[in-house]
């Protein structure tokens, strides 16, 4: 069970753009890592673009499952995981990340923000913390 990507995006009027993302491509061949990361970024943007406001969905793309949550305010999150990772955990993570992000980053910065300008450092921590979900009790 693996998480590969955790992204926060903004579904603006003209187009969707990435605000912040974290990737774990350590399981891929060194020479494939940058193209895998590009694929994940592109796929995340495409899925958010095709999703309506206030929607949640899980989309299969090649051997990955992409879980997307687009809030009514246009803030969106995408988790890319393998097929075995529990869907419920992914949506819990997206809820937590988007709530925290919206408290820490001004809504005025969302339409014009980019990974270079948005200051939100928690994604890498969440990606590693949720890498292997805790066993159920």
From TrEMBL:
Q: Report how it sits in the membrane.
A: Lipid-anchor
Gene name for this UniProt entry: Ykt6b
Name of the molecule in the record: YKT6B protein
CDD domains documented for this protein: Longin (cd14824)
Query: Which superkingdom does the taxonomy of this entry point to?
Result: Eukaryota
> Is Lipoprotein one of the keywords?
yes
Q: What is one GO biological process annotated to this record?
A: endoplasmic reticulum to Golgi vesicle-mediated transport
Gene Ontology molecular functions: SNAP receptor activity
- Has keyword Transport? yes
Q: Where, per UniProt, does this protein localize?
A: Endomembrane system
Belongs to which family? Answer: Belongs to the synaptobrevin family.
- Chief location category: membrane
Q: Which PANTHER family match?
A: SYNAPTOBREVIN HOMOLOG YKT6
Keywords in alphabetical order, please: Lipoprotein, Membrane, Methylation, Palmitate, Prenylation, Protein transport, Transport
- Per UniProt, residues of the Longin domain are 8-127
Record-linked SMART domains: Longin
Question: May I have one GO cellular component term?
Answer: Golgi apparatus
- List the Pfam families hit by this protein, alphabetically: Longin
């Amino acid at each position: 069970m693996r998480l590969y990507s955790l992204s926060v995006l903004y579904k603006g009027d003209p187009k969707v753009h990435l605000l912040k993302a974290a990737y774990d491509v350590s399981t891929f061949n060194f020479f494939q890592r940058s193209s895998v990361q590009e694929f994940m970024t592109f796929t995340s943007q495409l899925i958010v673009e095709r999703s309506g406001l206030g929607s949640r969905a899980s989309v299969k793309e090649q051997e990955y499952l992409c879980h997307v949550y687009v809030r009514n305010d246009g803030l969106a999150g995408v988790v890319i995981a393998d097929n075995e990772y529990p869907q419920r955990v992914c949506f819990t993570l997206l809820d937590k990340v988007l709530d925290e992000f919206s408290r820490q980053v001004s809504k005025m910065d969302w339409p014009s923000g980019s990974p270079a300008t948005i200051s939100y450092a928690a994604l890498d921590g969440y990606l590693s913390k949720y890498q292997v979900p805790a066993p159920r009790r």
